[in-house]
Write a structure and sequence with these properties.
Elements (H helix, E strand, L loop, with lengths): L1 H7 L5 H9 L6 H4 L2 H4 L4 H21 L17 H20 L9 H9 L9 H11 L7 H13 L9 H9 L1
Helix pairs in contact: 2-9, 5-9, 6-7
Length: 177
Amino acid sequence: MLGVAREYGISSLTKPAVKKLAKPEISFASWSTNPNIIRYMTPLDVGTIGWMKEKLVMARIALCTPPPVIHNSTCQHKDHTACLKSWKNFWALAVVPKLLNMDGEMDNSLWWIRMDCVAKASIQGMAGECSRYTIEEVIRNPGWRAETRIPEGAAELLAVEERGMLEPDDILDQVMS
């Protein structure tokens, strides 16, 4: 679809094609060597999609590092080690496995992980205010929007100028010349 969109100047097909290719369950190898698909694409097109896929994986890997804990002055754990340990355990056991699972299921999408796993977390052993402040800060991380923004950037790079369909007179002129 992307190749056809670019070949024939149908820009409205570019974004849906890129969005489809951005899905984690669609591997680069599954389509990039198929002559029936890539005959409509330039090496730059294929490279742009490869760049997008790599950026998406790198965004997930970057989110695997546990964000810092934001401590509150009312925390009962004055040395903050209990909050830090609880937070790291939560991140390693609840968040990282979802980040590394790229099977295409909705509950493994970055936005779902952000909204369902992190934003609603109840972290055992972590002071309530520390947990609330930390979660509020973590969900503001722009990395959670990578699965939207990176494909949008790739779609912009691959966008073509819209070309209208040929009028019957234009077709006749092309055939006659």
